[in-house]
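Reposting from the mailing list since nobody answered there.

I have sequence plus structure tokens for a pair of proteins and want to know whether others read the tokens the same way I do. The first protein:
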Amino acid sequence: MFRLSEISPSENIVIQCHDNPDADALASAFALYTYFENAGNKARIIYSGKFEISKPNLLEMLVQLEIPAEFVKPPANFPFLIVTDAQYGAGNVTRFDAEKICVIDHHMEEKTERDTGVINSALGSCSTLVWDLLRKENFPFDKFPNVSSALYFGLFTDTGGLSEIYHPLDRDMRDTLVYNRGLIKRLQNTNVSLAELALAGNALNNFVKNDEHRFAIFKAEPCDPNILGFISDLALQVDGIDTCIVYNVLPDGAKLSIRCCARDVMASDFAGFLTRGVGSGGGHLDKAGGFCSRARVAEQHTASSRPGDILDDYILARATEYFTSYELVDAANHGLDISKMKMYRKLKIAVGHVHSSDVFPAGTPVIIRALEGDETIIAADDIYFMVGILGEVYPITAEKFARGYALSQAPSDIKINELEYRPTVRSGITGEVKELADFIRPCTARGEVRVFVAPLSRYTKVFTKWSPDSYMYGREGDFIVVREDDVNDAYIIREDIFYLTYEAV
């Protein structure tokens, strides 16, 4: 695993943003610059391309946060080059010769040169990736408030004003950083130029609408990601549109902004469907975003004969496919024929549980944060958090826990230190964050809870008892499960988790 501390303090480091850098590129470069300068390195920030930065809020950001970004034209040779929010050799990065190359990025990985670095395309911003690297080095954020403000603004702009956040680490950074609220507000309010306002107007006149499924697709010229969110917020207010995609085509792919107001379409789910296998996407119930890699789309999609970019064709085809791809199940009245479903029982495996009122006092609104997303419940003496062997978290009543599990002295099978994300809970009142790992008590499934199970043959959405206003979703190969002792408790279990935790009766 890459660590910033692997880089020697004797290195002279040049940190390069992509051409025409945005707030996320500048913020991640500034945070790296500050870290290395504080660690004893000599560092500088550069960018190149056809034009110098001219966007008003970026110029204000450079001045107010004292970001020493330099505009540099090739040729030049650097001993150690770090490319951030982009990849060395990519089409949006001017190439400089370098003896050693490091890449720190959150876009889909391309075939590019690098000696070291890290790429995590699941994250909504490069600022998040850099923040995570810095906190692993115990960086003193409290001593560098400008870094915190820069990183927050980088995340803000790259996720449509925080409405298109994909990953729990994005949410953790958003909720943790102490930033200059007045400055962020000022930067927000100098975000749209007259030219961008005209661009938004042109995009709203350039659309495809599907009346049957009440969705519309709007294409914009290349612009700041925030402008896409601005356009999609306007588009969703149009009568007859319940779901909209606003996108622009870039040299390496397409940036998407998505808005939804239909009960059976979660924006985060729609974004994931559109970008699956070709990029990354996610967000919230009604707002999301994503990115589709041009190279990945070209590998997987055959364009139609109609004129236009292959990305135009892909987005329209994939969006249309989504609305005919799924079945809808409501746990309260699911109509599933359980007589045709197979019976399974929980394996006697060691998992974990947490009394919700041990973490926060009963009556506290608590946000469960895990890879599956955020879920809010009210802490109570009779509500537990179950933690599965892959770190999945879900609430359960004390009554159901007593029927299905027994307390255990043996350690659980959860490899907490190997999880992609260690689940946390956050107080909805104070904002205090606690790791569930600090409260987990081992327990073992009794093997007495039995469930009716059927494999999914197509994409399926399930409104559960716990979340009647949002749904779980599963793909072909996953399983729909109905508890024998409560036939209105229906939910989805991922294929990999199911085979590790259940056996046929």
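The second protein, same order (residues first, tokens after):
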Amino acid sequence: MAGIYVHIPFCRRFCIYCDFYSELSFEESSESFLDALSGEIRSRSSWPCASEGIRTLYFGGGTPSLLSCSQFGRIMDALHGVFDLSALEEVTVEVNPDDICRKPSEWPGTLRKMGFNRVSMGVQSFDDGVLRWMNRRHDASEAVRAYEILRDAGFDNISIDLIFGFSGLDDVLWRDTIRSALSLPGGAPEHISAYSMSLEPGSALSEMNRSGRYSEPDEDDTARQYALLQSMLAGAGYEQYEVSNFSMPRKISRHNSSYWDGTPYIGFGPSAHSLTIDSQGRRVRSWNGSDLQAYLSGNSRGGYEILTDEEVSEENIMLGLRCASGASIPSSDADPLVAEGLLIPLSGGRYRIPADKFFISEYIIGRLL
């Protein structure tokens, strides 16, 4: 069963590390964007996976929490007009803490009534100095208050994002960050995504690095912070099911997991990607252009590619080995890495990377491709 991703391409400001496509023109462009989005949704009714039951729906960005309930309603109405959403299991919306704190009190409850049952909140840190440096819009107290608001509205499946592995973050501050996440009011989040900060092309941080205003941390420091994260979350009852993702039992992100196991999905909005299976059984990846004005004029298509059998095999290994479930690998290729302790054999010809080697997963995957 397929999934749907909706990209909301607006932000109030840009975080220094981010390279996701977004614009600062929410007030002047939001209504015309909703018109264009509704039109794109209607145009996809003939896509191969449109006739399948949709299992997951994910609103990402950008900053989806900029939208009002009525704007979300317009999008949901458009989706219901084309797709069978009766089998939806998971409906996720990404939010910024300050938006939650400033929204009308009924905003999260209304989303619950619309069918949203999961929230992914970008916290990143509980240190106000770090948040200012990242150019985040919220402070630590707003993150805690937003979490309380979501709990009070009945959300029992909340994910938060955290970032480690950047200059200035020492082990003490990182430990305190994890402890703050685990002690949030209303109970620890059901899911935590934690990412090592990287220099993404086009991001402000990348420019700071080029100009000498930022230097990446020592890799050993980042590896130690990752190991600390794994240890503390395991001790709190979380299961690590992917390199950057930890969940309480049965609370994995079903939508994101579909990206890693090859489940078809349709993406709407500027820069959104889709994966479908054509009539010949081939995987076809397509994407919209990263240009809001072109999208508003009806020119959303960016390009597509038909994956070869070799590319599918390599992608299955690359994505599968990011997950605890592992990937199918010929034993002749896997055995040398098993001997080095870099892979663990599972049943049915599958192998996985040991949890204590997840930090060097890119190196291990590179040995196989």
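Reply #1 (J.P.):
I read it the same way you do. The chain has 14 helices and 15 strands.
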